[in-house]
Amino acid sequence: MNLSVVIPVYNSERTIGPLVERLQTCLAGRMFEIVLVNDGSPDRSESICLQLEKRFTTVRFVSLRRNFGEFNAVLCGLNHTRGQWVVIIDDDFQNPPEAILTLVACAESGQYDVVYSRYAQKKHHWFRNLGSWLVNTVTTYSIGKPRDLYLSSFKLIQREVVDEIIRYRGPYPYIDGLIFRVTRNVTSVEVPHNPRAEGRSNYTFQKLIGLVLNVFIGYSLWPIRVFTVLGAMLFGLGLLCGLLFVLAWLTGTLTFSGWSLVLWAIGTGLGVQLLFLGVLGEYLGKLFMAYSGLPPYVEKKSERAKE
């Protein structure tokens, strides 16, 4: 198998059929497979994917028991791939299927493990662009991503890297974070970007906050180290202020209200404690969920067994 195409499917009853048909045309002449993962869609996406699997021998279909999220669905799809290269593409036609060949052409040089797509002009909604900017800024510091690299969802991954990614068994997969745990040998190529063909993006404020927290807490020790340094600085500042208070009191150059000092100490100490407890709680929560045996996805059905 030369190429695998993973498509996470959610509310795509109008787009997934035309997308698979175009892939049959633009990838003709290659040994390829298409892995469709239905992420608990409430519409007719599951039945349409089943029809596509029966219609095309290149299509493999997995349906998840409920909606687990895009990254979990992608991880499921990666576990069902066999290709030398694996391409991840969304189901909304914002990335033209023909652009897969651009990623493959770059990968065939053999120089890179991962090829990301980049866009001269993104056609996302402004909120999605804002969220992408925030996530890319966070990942620059948390996982060591190059500043000029855009972490697009449309990308190509070499087989060896995929084999390492699918070893992850936790409930909070972040595909780009897992990629950068394996390799830094990545690049990007420019491809077209189209307006969304149908419906609207499922990218909500709640999902944005969840993703940022997942990247910050689940894939880096950077936040806790920042707060550790901040705590040390506040502790040092407190000692210095305490020394100055004692010297001012002994020399009689300055008088203080007892209540103001008490309130200052309580407020400062309580704020620091709450910050540290919040970060510690996030880490403990992630550890609890990771070791509780909660899987990243649950398969509802897999019509064609993995060969």
TrEMBL record:
<dbReference type="GO" id="GO:0009103">
    <property type="term" value="P:lipopolysaccharide biosynthetic process"/>
</dbReference>
<feature type="transmembrane region" description="Helical">
    <location>
        <begin position="203"/>
        <end position="222"/>
    </location>
</feature>
<keyword id="KW-0328">Glycosyltransferase</keyword>
<feature type="transmembrane region" description="Helical">
    <location>
        <begin position="229"/>
        <end position="250"/>
    </location>
</feature>
<protein>
    <submittedName>
        <fullName>Glycosyltransferase</fullName>
    </submittedName>
</protein>
<feature type="transmembrane region" description="Helical">
    <location>
        <begin position="256"/>
        <end position="280"/>
    </location>
</feature>
<keyword id="KW-0448">Lipopolysaccharide biosynthesis</keyword>
<keyword id="KW-0472">Membrane</keyword>
<dbReference type="GO" id="GO:0005886">
    <property type="term" value="C:plasma membrane"/>
</dbReference>
<dbReference type="InterPro" id="IPR001173">
    <property type="entry name" value="Glyco_trans_2-like"/>
</dbReference>
<dbReference type="Pfam" id="PF00535">
    <property type="entry name" value="Glycos_transf_2"/>
</dbReference>
<feature type="domain" description="Glycosyltransferase 2-like">
    <location>
        <begin position="4"/>
        <end position="163"/>
    </location>
</feature>
<keyword id="KW-0808">Transferase</keyword>
<keyword id="KW-1003">Cell membrane</keyword>
<keyword id="KW-0812">Transmembrane</keyword>
<dbReference type="InterPro" id="IPR050256">
    <property type="entry name" value="Glycosyltransferase_2"/>
</dbReference>
<dbReference type="GO" id="GO:0099621">
    <property type="term" value="F:undecaprenyl-phosphate 4-deoxy-4-formamido-L-arabinose transferase activity"/>
</dbReference>
<dbReference type="InterPro" id="IPR029044">
    <property type="entry name" value="Nucleotide-diphossugar_trans"/>
</dbReference>
<keyword id="KW-1133">Transmembrane helix</keyword>
